[in-house]
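Quick one, T. Sequence first:
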Amino acid sequence: MGKNSWGLSLAALILEGLSATSCGSGHKQSYLQSMSISPAAADAKDYSGGEVQFTTTGYYVNPTRTVTPQAANWVACQNEVPTNMVSVSSAGLAQCGPGAGGTYSINAWNPNTGPGVYSCPSPNACGGGCTIAATAQLTCP
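Structure tokens:
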């Protein structure tokens, strides 16, 4: 009888070990759910040298947390098409180019995918893609 108890205990330990190493140790992976950009709207004339620093915040689930700045790809768009009238650095620093006038959208997107996020072969950087994205507005004088 003692021999069977030892065998059952060993089997239970092996099953527990296998369970702990599969499926992320029983914990759901944290993944990016949404993003926002701040400021949501800016007028270049109100900033030193016309340079506007945009910053992304990522909102995660499992566990719930926020990350600022959230890593992102950046692009300036006009009428939902990328434009070179406004430059945006990889860190979100935007500046109106010569001849730029009116309002442009500053888009940030995160191409990383996770549960519930669908990957697209060619997402539209100016919106409409399947990646997690956020948009702000920049007005050029």
